[in-house]
Write a structure and sequence with these properties.
Layout (H helix, E strand, L loop, with lengths): L12 H7 L3 E2 L1 H11 L11 H20 L4 E2 L1 H45 L3 H6 L14 H6 L2 H11 L2 H9 L4 E13 L2 E14 L2 E15 L5 E10 L7
Parallel strand pairs: 1-2
Antiparallel strand pairs: 3-4, 4-5, 5-6
Helix pairs in contact: 2-3, 2-4, 3-4
Amino acid sequence: MRPSVPDVHISDPQDAELATYRTLVWQAVLGLIFGLFAPLALVDPMLWAIAAAGTILSWWALRRIKNYPAELAGRKLALAGLTLSLLFLTAAPADWLAYRWMIRHEARQFSALWFRYLMQDEPHKAYQLNLPPQFRPPLDDHLWDFYRSAPRQREGLEKFVNTPLVRTLLALGPKAQVRFYRTGNQTHDNSNDQVDQYYAVTYEEQGEKKSFFVLVQMLRRKLSSGQAGWQVVDTQGGVRPEGW
């Protein structure tokens, strides 16, 4: 007499899933891998492609699994990859835009200080902002004494004062009005940021208002101390902003 074999009854849906062989979708695996590397998008805009690839692969995997649920597996992997990729695909541009805005704001404050020193007839202080941050003497009441006792540094100050733009701004003094016009080029390279900004200088001559533009090119350097310092690397008067 043959022994009876009991019928196999699967009551748990998870057991049913294990009992049925399903192919793991390769897009789900790749989507999760790209999702795990998606935080690199915060480092450089060129790496946004990692988060974008993770989003596309994970979405593709979910679509395939939805169309063939009984044959394909990997939904949880695809969801994890999609969540990570979308998170950093959104966070990276937001962080990049916030950083650019902060750099522009700092540049405007620094260039405004440069103009203010010249309008207040303090060219020695304005010249300090043209020097690399790590080589600047202290901005205090002894700064004139420093230039009197340092011939080479005094020669650099004299060349600065004799440039046409600086002479014009010193001559106009507080009679001129300096207004920020727009930001030009803005670049980031090797932890340094360069920002070009245009300013409109307006003054009155013989009852008639006249204006000219000034281009201020500034560099934000990463210092050895880990901090950052700004420097005016070039100024040009009488320029025409792009699109003017």
